[in-house]
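Example for tutorial group B:
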């Protein structure tokens, strides 16, 4: 199965580059990210950047666009994934990925698939019961 991250990687990377966004987890990475953004036409002082989440730094003027575009990119990829693999296969993959066979807890799997249109917690439990 091609994962959501693999399906979205190219589009998300382009989105970040086109909007001067980058990941930084310390001063060195921040300086490198600002330098790379400057090469890409974003000559913006670091004070005009905001930390969006998980180390993602983005010019304040582009935060909303990046957030909205990410939502669209992931929604499109989820629909494509459901069309290609089906609901049960996606849930089964995520159950395995979140080690359901060890924890016997569907919570992490549910968190992974709750953004898919039409997926329910009951679907996750049904697939767990069927395969484990």
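The residue assignment follows.
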């Amino acid at each position: 199965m091609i994962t959501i991250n693999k399906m979205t990687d190219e589009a998300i990377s382009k989105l970040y580059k086109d909007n001067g966004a980058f990941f930084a987890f310390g001063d060195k990475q921040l300086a490198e990210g600002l330098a790379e953004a400057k090469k890409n036409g974003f000559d913006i002082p670091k004070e005009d950047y905001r930390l969006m989440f998980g180390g993602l730094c983005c010019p304040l003027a582009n935060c909303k666009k990046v957030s909205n575009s990410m939502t669209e990119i992931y929604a499109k990829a989820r629909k494509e994934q459901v069309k290609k693999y089906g609901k049960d296969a996606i849930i089964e993959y995520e159950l395995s990925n979140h080690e359901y066979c060890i924890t016997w807890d569907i919570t992490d799997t549910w968190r992974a698939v709750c953004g898919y249109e039409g997926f329910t917690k009951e679907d996750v439990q049904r697939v767990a019961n069927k395969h484990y």
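The mean pLDDT is 96. Compare this with the pattern of hydrophobic and polar residues in the output above.
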